[in-house]
Structures are given as C-alpha cells and as structure tokens.
Write a structure and sequence with these properties.
There is one protein chain. Helix content is 8%, strand content 37%. It is built from three helices and 56 strands. The longest helix is centred in the N-terminal third of the chain and has 31 residues. The radius of gyration is 29 Å and the shape is globular. Strand 13 and strand 14 form a beta hairpin. The two termini are 57 Å apart. The strands form eight sheets. It has a twelve-stranded parallel β-sheet with strand order 1-2-5-24-31-34-38-42-45-48-51-54, with helices on one face. The chain has six domains: 45 residues; 80 residues, no CATH class; 62 residues, no CATH class; 85 residues, Sandwich (Immunoglobulin-like), CATH 2.60.40; 167 residues, no CATH class; 131 residues, no CATH class. The protein has 618 residues and is mainly beta.
Length: 618
C-alpha cells in the first residue's frame, strides 16, 4: 500500500521510462493486493480462528462459524474445517458448540487420525436441546384403505417406526404382552407344534419372523411355512443357534412378527418390502401426527489406530436418537448378551452402537441422552482407555446399552464366543460408568445387557440406576468353563449401583452376572431388588462358570424370583462371599446338586438407600 500512495508523486517526474516502470509496479501491486485479499478471505472461510466453532440448523456452511451469530450449518463442516487447517503441526483445544435443533444424519460422522487437535469437545450450547438424529420423516400422505387401516408409500426399507417419541409395535401375534409355548418341537428338523387351543391362522411370508426365547437366548429367525391343519410351523434354518447346547424348549416363550395378517391393534404397522407400502392400524387419522424411521446404525464412529490413539475427545449435553437395526442373512440367533451366530466355526457378531469408539484415550461422554435406538448406545472397542461415561440417561435402547470391550465378526477358539486379545494393550481398560440412568432397555434384542464388560479390565461401574430390563443388568467377563484360565477381564469394580426390575422376560441371568476367573474383581455395596418375571433362574447376583478370585460383599439383595446369590461351577476356594444383606456377618452357602451353591441374604433394606444409584443429581 505504501507504493500506491507514492504513485502520484512519482508521476510528476514526467520520465516516460520511469512512468512505465511505475505502471508496471502499480499493476503488480494491485495484483498482489488482490491475491492477498482473496487469500485472506479463503483463509477466513476455511480455517477456524480461535478455538470455538458454532453450528446451528439454520446456519451456513460457507460461513467460518467462529461467532455465534454466523454459525455453520453442520457438524461435518465444522470437522472439515478442523481437518483442513494449514497448521496441522499446531495442536489446538477446540470446541464445536451446537445450537438448539435436530441435526439429521444420512451417514455416520467418522473422526479418525486425519484430524489434528489437542482436545475436541462437541457440546450443546448452554440450556439448549441438541439432537443428533439418524431418523427420517415418513410424511403426511396416509390414505385410509379400510376401517382403521391406513397406507402410505415410503422410499426405504426399515424395521422400526416411531411417533411422538414412542416406539410403535411392528405387527405381531399374539399381541404385545402375550406369548405362546410350543407343545412339541424338533430344533434340528426345524418344526414346532402348538396345542389345539392355539389357532395358527396365518400364512408364512418371506418377511414373517419367529421370535423365541431359549432360556437366556433371544432368537429372531425366518419362517418357511405354516400348516394350519396340524398347528405346526417350519423355520428356514435350525431353530435357535446351532452352536449352543441349550435349545428352545416347551417352557420357552414364542411369538410371531412382521406379517400384515397380524395388523389388528392400535399403532401396529407393517412394511411390505416388495411394494414399499407401509400399512398401519389406527383409529384416528395418522396425517395429524409425525412418524419417523431410523435410517443408519451408527451416528458417530471414532476410529483411532493401535499406535496412535485419538485423545481427549468429549461429548457433552447432546441427545442421540434414531438408529436402525438390521436383520442379516444369518438371522439374529442370540447366543449370549446380544451376540448372535449360527454354527460352530462360523462368525459371531455383536450389536453396533450409536456412538462407537476404538483406540481412544481420555474421552468423556457427559450429560447426554440416548433414546430410541435400534442397537446399542455406546460401544468401546479395542484399545479404548480412560473413558468416563457420567450423568447420562439411556432409554429405549435396542440391545447392549454400554459395551466395554466390543468384539464382532469373529470365529471363536474352542467356544463360539471365546477370542481374547493376544496383545494386552488392545484390551479396553480403565473406563468408568458413573451416575447414569438406564431404563426400559434392550427393547429390540431382549437378550441384551445394560452394561457389558467382556475382555476388559480395571473398569469402574458405580452409582448407576438400572431398571426395566428383560435380561441382565450388569455382566462382567467373557469365558465359560471352570478351567481357571485367565483372560483380559480382571480388576473390575461393580459398586453402589441400584438395580431393580431386571430379568423380566428371559432366564438364567441376574441383576449382576459374572463369568470366568477375574482376579481383583469386586462386586460390592450394590442394592438389588424386584428381580424376575422370566421362565426360570432369575437371580440377584449370579457368578457363573469359572468365576474365581472375586469378592462379593456388602450387597443388599431381596425380592428376587430365584436366589439372592447363586454360584455355578465356580473356583470356590478363591471366592469370597461375605457381609451381604447385613453388616459384618457370614453368608452361608447351600449346595444345589454338585456344581452350584446359593445363599439368600434375608429381606433387609440397606441402612442408607441414598448412597446407592445416581449421586450429585443435576
């Protein structure tokens, strides 16, 4: 700019050669000036200035997002600006602040090592409701086809439908809350018969599903045919998981789902996947309401690397909602704790989650709300360390709510579920689940768990309230058998949790369940009551096969369908069971046959109930 100011003075010299040079200099300067201005504009648009980026549903992704009155429109754009900073060698602490609204995703947001930051916090603006959603709106073009039956054309395939924040029942028979028992069955020959009092008056289609319990298994598989004259159904594959020695029995609970002939109750729906016509039973006009279906399985996927973990990533004050579940070719034959598979020697799978993490360190998930999910809420996979999950709520979660040590798509060694980490550094460890409320959970896969720890160590599960679960509240360990073999599951603490109304549908589980030899693991100072509702073996605390080197102490347990405490095939000489149901007392163990023991602690209330469950409520 100094050269430009001097131009008039230089022109007075009337030197043509000099004037020519001046003109050249002027042009160069103007070009350089324009280049600088464009560069500055581009830089301002593409790189965050300062450490805060704002996002709003009515924002503009062409903005730089550095002020609250000029926000970006999407989280993806904010991450893109972080990713493409010129000075990647300079690591900053960055916040992405989301203004109130619903942020609809069509694909998961992936954060990997292409991002450079000292710490990253993705949070809701103070006192504003921010929703990260994988849902899509059905629209309002419903047509009444017959009395109480409405139809609408839809674009995509889906397995769930929601309205007014409530999950709607996919057409089933018998209706929700009811079930059948088979009279006779042969699982390997794929048939099941029912008594004459049960009228199997429907036709099997390619979409019709059998939904069954197998004591602790939860099974969903396809039907091949129905013989109404013989009251018999035939499935496409063997009934239940072929790899399990425990099979579906006459005491198990059966219902059928996903057939338009079952459409007979308020809010029930059926999607014909050949015609993309959605049908609903409704006594009122559905065009007066909004309906949503989840379109993606995962909302955020954090992918660090074995030798380069992603550190200091935080989520705060967000709501995560609407993820889908899929019905794969191998079907959903539950084996244990939400894991499914078929034959020995074939892969086993576990549920994904709305928020998935691998190889991260020192992350926090605080004051968030997870709801209306088809699969899990949070899954901590290989190499996740020092994660704190604190003061969150979880409701209507389809499968395992919080998985610590998620593994999937693997072939077990010796047992279909056994595949421990070969390198101890890969094991998930030193994570905390504190002050969370889990309620109305595992609503799609009833065999799921509230908090599941597999091959993982030094975790603390404390001061949580867990209620309304068809199966187990907290499960720790991942090796069945009493050979005493050590795994990466050890030194876990389960303490000061309030667990009630679990084991409401399946059997052979407990409010707290453990398996395998786990030196240093303690189950202490938990308050457990109102457990049961399934067919059999609903226990308070259940230490199953190979449980060893654990301490079970100072727990208050009562109002349990089975026993307050049961141990099955434990390493008894290494187990400490004391002071449960009382202060400084002995717990007498009684034998159940040759391989199990139990103890009932008495119906004593804890002296101070306030110390259990959620603390420091906000």
């Amino acid at each position: 700019m100094a050269h430009i100011k001097n131009v008039p003075e230089l022109n007075k010299a009337k030197d043509p050669i000099r004037c020519k040079k001046i003109k050249i200099h002027t042009s160069i300067c103007m070009a350089l000036g324009l280049f600088v201005l464009v560069s500055l504009f581009t830089s301002c648009q593409s790189e965050p200035k300062g450490n805060v980026l704002y996002v709003a549903v009515n924002g503009d992704d062409n903005s730089n997002g550095t002020t609250i009155d000029k926000p970006l429109r999407s989280v993806q754009k904010a991450l893109e600006l972080i990713q493409h900073r010129a000075s990647k060698e300079v690591e900053d602490s960055i916040e992405i602040i989301l203004r109130e609204g619903v942020y609809q995703l069509t694909e998961p947001i992936i954060i990997d090592n292409s991002y450079s930051f000292k710490s990253l916090k993705i949070k809701a603006n103070m006192n504003e409701k921010v929703i990260i959603s994988g849902g899509k709106d059905i629209g309002d073009l419903w047509i009444e086809k017959s009395e109480n039956i409405w139809e609408i054309n839809v674009e995509n395939d889906f397995n769930q439908l929601f309205s007014d924040d409530q999950r709607l029942q996919r057409a089933r028979w018998p209706n929700k809350g009811e079930y059948l028992h088979p009279e006779k069955l042969n699982v390997s020959e794929r048939w099941m018969t029912f008594s004459d009092s049960v009228a199997l008056n429907f036709t099997a289609t390619a979409q019709t599903e059998l939904v069954a319990t197998g004591i602790w298994h939860f099974i969903r598989q396809r039907l091949e045919s129905v013989d109404t004259s013989e009251n018999t159904i035939v499935t496409k594959t063997e009934i239940g998981p072929e790899c399990s020695s425990t099979k579906v029995r006459p005491l198990d609970r059966i219902y059928f789902e996903n057939n338009i002939e079952f459409l007979d109750s308020e809010g029930e729906w059926f999607l014909n996947k050949d015609t993309n016509v959605l049908s609903m039973f409704s006594s009122s006009n559905p065009n007066e309401n909004s309906f949503y279906y989840p379109a993606i399985e995962t909302l955020f996927h954090i992918k660090g690397e074995k030798d380069k973990s992603i550190a200091n990533l935080n989520f705060e004050g967000l709501t995560f909602e609407y993820t889908t579940w899929n019905f794969p070719e191998e079907e959903r034959k539950g084996i244990q704790a939400g894991f499914w598979g078929t034959e020995v020697g074939k892969p086993v799978f576990s549920p994904p989650a709305a928020l998935m993490m691998t190889y991260t360190d020192n992350s926090n998930i605080l004051n968030c709300h997870f709801k209306n999910l088809g699969e899990g809420a949070i899954a901590l996979g290989a190499g996740v360390k020092h994660t704190t999950i604190d003061r969150n709520t979880f409701t209507d979660i389809g499968s395992n709510v919080i998985q610590i040590g998620r593994i999937s798509n693997f072939i077990g060694e010796g047992h279909p579920l056994h595949l421990d980490y070969k390198d101890e550094s890969d094991a998930t460890a030193f994570n905390s689940v504190l002050n969370n409320h889990l309620y109305n959970i595992t609503t799609v896969d009833n065999g799921g768990i509230g908090v599941l720890i597999t091959y993982s160590n030094n975790n603390k599960i404390s001061h949580n309230l867990i209620e309304g679960a068809p199966y187990t509240g907290i499960s720790v360990g991942w090796r069945w058998g009493n050979d005493g073999l050590l795994t990466n599951a050890h030194h876990n603490e389960i303490s000061y949790n309030h667990i009630r109304n679990c084991m409401e549908y399946l059997g052979d589980g407990g409010a707290i369940y453990t398996v395998s030899n786990q030196p240093g693991t303690i189950v202490t100072h938990n308050w457990i009551h109102s457990i049961g509702g399934g067919a059999a073996m609903a226990e308070g605390i259940y230490t199953d096969q190979g449980s060893g080197n654990m301490t079970i102490s100072d727990n208050y347990v009562y109002d349990v369908q089975g026993h307050d405490y049961v141990g099955h095939k434990n390493l008894w000489e290494t187990m400490t069971i004391k002071n449960n149901g009382c202060d400084d007392c002995e717990n007498t163990l009684e034998a159940i046959g040759e391989i199990a023991k139990y103890s009932d602690f008495g119906d004593n209330l804890p002296p101070d109930p306030s110390i259990y469950g959620i603390q420091n409520k906000k």
